[in-house]
Amino acid sequence: MTPLPTAFTDYTRQLMGDERFERYLQSFEEEPPVSIRLNPKKVESEKWKVEGGEPVPWCRNAYYLKSRPNFTMDPLFHAGCYYVQEAASMFLDFVLMNHGNGNPDTALDLCAAPGGKSTLLRSALPNDCVLYSNEPIRNRASILLENVTKWGYGNHLVTSVYPKVYRRSKLCFDVILCDVPCSGEGMFRKDPATILEWCPQNVEKCWQLQRDIVADAWPCLNPGGLFIYSTCTFNTKENEENIRWMLEEFDDAEVIPVNVSPEWHITGSLLPGFDESVYRFIPGISRGEGLFMCVLRKRGETHPRPLPTREGSGYSQMQRLSTPLTHREGPEVGLSYPQAIAYLRHEALVLPADTPRGLVTVCFQGFPLGLAKNIGTRANNLYPKEWKIKTTHIPDEYVPIIIDKS
């Protein structure tokens, strides 16, 4: 185990108290839980089972696994049949079930990469709700776009701009998620590299950046709209103190509670004198990594502002920055497991002799993986090169993670 910084342990022990902090330390001796979330658009939970899976209680279609399999070598993972996501982050689904804001027309995930919460939002929101998923950092936005594309829903746009651009665009939303960049204390067990990056100066930098992001996001929320603030860190500067700042800064902001089960062992506020409803997952206490979440609503009569017209500056600005989903097309051609892995490695394929020439959609177990152009003697692989599997190892046999019960 990478040693925890003294400044972190001193502060966090005082914050959590001795008993809670000792349970947190003990969690480093355990393997972090592995969990996946099925894609209800592609996989009906009644017809499929997760091998050795145990339901995540606060999220629909989500399961803990007994161990971590090799997801990279599962074509169904690349087909978007499920998403590998940390269980605490899935608490967002329960929030939306409790406070879905009626029938929202528009939603925004402002800090969306790599895409776990965005794909969850897309599955939980009404099909006709337009979801914008944004990531300012371009290389991270590319990963977001890949995951959103594979998830396979319409009405989902990916953008790569800083939050101030959304504020200037005059776009407004019924639901906004701000899963803000943070100091990452809640990921220490899962990702030891975050321990080496932590320092008190970074905490100071983070809480100030988080307030800048929220200040740009709040004006984009329609009256009556839902605002979800989350981090993957423990300290109160990035959590409770930021919520208190929001309540002081925005006269129309109010915190709304979520009715959680005591069996989930979710921790409330750790800031003395701050009694608003907040939800903190702590490894060793709740079954997942570190997460803080608070749900707010903008007071006022609900009268959603329409999306800007084509003539409006906001519409034209965001259109240039938006990337719509690509669409799959052509006759479907089934692949064996070795062929599917070869395709995902961006290798050329030889398809059956009766395969029509031109664009075809290649599939594994009936699920589309992508496009190929059949020219007869071979098929040119049109799978995006930046998505390809880079490892040269190919397993001897396919070990399924999700299984069709039929």
Question: Which keywords apply here?
Answer:
alpha/beta; 9-stranded mixed β-sheet
What does this structure look like?
- This protein is an alpha/beta fold and 406 residues long.
- Helices cover 28% and strands 22% of the residues.
- Residues 309-317 and 319-327 have low confidence and may be disordered.
Give the integer mean of the pLDDT values.
92
- What is the share of helical residues? 25-40%
For the sheet with most strands, the description reads: 9 strands, mixed
Structural class: alpha/beta
- Helix count? 12
Break the fold down into its secondary structure elements and pairings.
Elements: H1 6-16, H2 18-26, E1 34-38, E2 48-50, E3 54-55, E4 62-65, H3 75-78, E5 82-84, H4 91-98, E6 106-109, H5 116-124, E7 130-134, H6 138-151, E8 156-159, H7 163-169, E9 173-179, H8 193-197, H9 200-217, E10 221-231, H10 240-249, E11 253-255, E12 279-281, E13 291-298, H11 313-321, E14 322-324, E15 332-334, H12 337-344, E16 358-364, E17 367-374, E18 379-381, E19 402-404
Parallel strand pairs: 6-7, 6-9, 7-8, 9-10, 15-16
Antiparallel strand pairs: 1-4, 1-5, 2-19, 3-4, 8-14, 10-13, 11-13, 12-13, 16-17, 17-18
Helix pairs in contact: 1-2, 4-5, 7-11
Short description:
By secondary structure, the protein is of the alpha/beta class. The protein is 28% helix and 22% strand. The strands form four sheets. Strands 6, 7, 8, 9, 10, 11, 12, 13 and 14 form a nine-stranded mixed beta sheet that branches. Strands 3-4-1-5 form a four-stranded antiparallel beta sheet, with helices on one face. It has a four-stranded mixed beta sheet with strand order 15-16-17-18.
